[in-house]
Input
Amino acid sequence: MYYPLAVFTSVFALLPIIGNLAAETPAVLLEKAIHAEESAGDVNEAIRLYQQIVNDAQANRQYVAQAQYRLGLCLQKVNRLNEAQAAFDRLISEFPEQKELIAQARKLMPAPAFPEIVGCRIRETLSLRLEPPRPGWEKETPTREFTISEYTIVNIKWDLDPALAAKTQSFALHVDDFGSYLPAASARSHEVGGPESKSGASPGLKASSDSRDLTAGNYTIRIGAYDAKKKTFGVDGDHLIAVATAKLTVKPLPRTQINVSSIKPDGTIESRFVGQQTNDDLRDVTSNSFVNDDTINVTAMSDDDGRPLKFTTRHDRQRGFYRHEVTLNRPVPPGKPLLYANEITAGGGIRPVAGKPDEFQFHMKHWPATGEPTRRIEIYRLPKGAELLETTPKDMARRTVNEHIELFVEKMIPAGGNILTAFRYRLPGAVLASRPVTATQPGIEPMKLKPATWSDGEVMRLRIRSEAGGEIGTVLYSSEAIKAGTKDAWRIESTMVIAMVDMLQFTRVDAER
Output
């Protein structure tokens, strides 16, 4: 009698443990996550549970696919759109058999978020919806989260139910110590940051008499709708009929390069280049300089206020590039941003595809050469009527605006790193310009081409020395006679290595013989 009793007692003691294990199976976790999302309204808890399921390597694929799909939905609800995109991408790539879920995910995937460039800054739009205030709303942690960089123009937009809108007499917008009263009941947006408005028509949110910029830190956005005309600093409960809150994280400005290019039918590229960097010196910055090759013509420069910048251009014949010296309109103190824009016309970037009439290609590997991590943003607008054939990277964002295909890529490039951008398109009847656009500033002579003096298989090695005379790198040039389709061509390759800044640059040019 004793032995069976001992067995029974031991089994009974294990029942709670078995029950706990069962409660944590993917099926149960999925049920708990759906309840948290749809019934309890606790989206953050649902995200935690869905992530637990998708990270379980032993879980049933059906449960993981469901969790992956719902994770994307929840991330969209809290405005973590990049993470939502990644969740849907993983569903599509890892669960191809889930055709219905994939179809739903594709419908919900956000359209490519092309950055909006205004002057020398990026404008970010933050959208919120006002709801009737719940008891204790002032102490609730915001569920919406946004992240931007310093010196971004923040466009805060909101909407609310038509019945509440009909009762609204005024709005109040408060971003911590930045506050604004908006008496017009029709207002639905407001901007924070950017250069001062000379007309005063767009007041913005001012930290002081000469600044509207949100510096690095964490902020809380509050928007209130009132059924009375009132003027208040902040958002309070008196006459409040709808409210929205969100967390805003402002990160320090990274070194940023923005290139917005419009490609003409003849292959000429008109670009606006925007540079953003913080003055990390101990002294004011009063000038700036940069170099480019002879295919690039800088036609104008401007500062953050849109005022023209004076610059001079000098051709360095020995090194084979143009050096531009820029005088700033006002000094940039230490810790403040240097924001400027160049208007550029360039030729030679678009080339025909050998053996394929009406097909053209662009291929550029860019090294920022800043010596620090650099945020690189590139936007390309193809000629009207162009058919896009392929891109590198393959998942390059694209959209169509006024019958023009636009491409967008963004990358944080590590120090010494690079970004490769390439695309190929078809444009029937297009004829490229006969020669590249060359610099036309006074006193500069366009480069004249001469017959090739090299031979097949020739290699030339050059040592790079600093101004002090020390050797800092090497450049290797090679020439090879090749066939490009049915035509005889030269293939010229160059490799530059500068070890002290961890820089490696490779260039290849195929030219008809």
In short: The chain has four domains: 15-108, 116-251, 255-446, 454-513. The CA atoms of residues 373 and 414 lie 4 Å apart. Residues 1-23, 179-186, 196-211, 440-444 have pLDDT under 50 and may be disordered.
